[in-house]
Amino acid sequence: MLRDIISNELYTILLVTGLLIVAIAKLASPKRFDDFILVLGNSKYLKIYSREQKFFDKFDALLFGNLIISLSIFIFISYQYLVDGRSLSFGLMLKLSFSIALLILIKVLIERLIGSLLEIDKLIDLYLFQKITYKNYLGILLIPINALLLFGFKPSLPIIYVIIILLLIVNIVGLITSFKTHQSLIKSHYFYFILYLCTLEISPYIILYKVFITK
Questions:
Q1: pLDDT for res 52
Q2: If you average pLDDT over residues 122-129, what whole number do you get?
Q3: How far apart (Å, rounded) are the C-alpha atoms in residues 215 and 194?
Q4: Using a CB cutoff of 8 Å and minimum separation of 24, what contacts does 169-173 make?
Q5: Distance between CA atoms of 191 and 168, rounded to whole angstroms?
């Protein structure tokens, strides 16, 4: 049982930190936050704020911070339960969070570079904004999910799989919504966009699958 193996003190601090970051984002941009919360079923947020996107956006940066914390907690809980019973330390969590953030940021920079090389900068910028938006949305969903896993009930393999599938469904629904929002722009650059998707969205997962299968 997870709560018998480790103290939840550090988890609690991290969860509260995530909540504080989300609260700061809401206080800083209340109207935008309200639109953001409804993004899954409403494309209003994407239509309005994609026009105002910047290379560095404070609102997205705050929610991205919560995403890294929440995702790190979930990954560590899952790994700890499924693979290893080691206890959580600040140093280990810091390394995990830094690695996740670095991988995501490097991937975004590479995607921007590929978009520039294929001369579809505008399309890729919109696509990246939408992806970051839905990832940040998943970060907020992970706050109550993590709290339930830590303090509500004992984690189990079926529960972890259900949560992963739920998060994937939310992400897929979000991407479908974003594609519909900008379908005319995508159609005008259809070939390059498909090439981009195959290179940076599909092939990495195929490679990871092959790596794990051959082990």
A1: 67
A2: 79
A3: 30
A4: 170/40, 170/134, 170/137, 170/138, 170/141, 171/134, 171/135, 171/138, 173/40
A5: 26
**Quick one: CA dihedral 138, 142, 144, 149, positive or negative?**
positive
Helix (H, G, I), strand (E, B) or coil at 28: helix
Confidence of residue 208 (pLDDT cuts 50, 70, 90): low
CA distances from 100 to 40, 118, 189, 197, 207 (A): 24, 27, 31, 21, 18
**Lookup result for tokens 């700890």:** 80
Q: If we measure between CA atoms, which residue out of 36, 50, 174, 199 comes closest to residue 123?
A: 50
CA 37 to chain CA centroid, nearest Å? 15
Helices H / strands E in the chain, number of each: 11, 0
Query: CA-based diameter of the chain, in Å?
Result: 56
Residue 71 is which amino acid? L
Q: Which pTM value belongs to this model?
A: 0.80
Q: At what angle do helices 58-82 and 30-37 cross, to 10 degrees?
A: 40
Residues 72, 96: contact at Cβ < 8 Å? yes
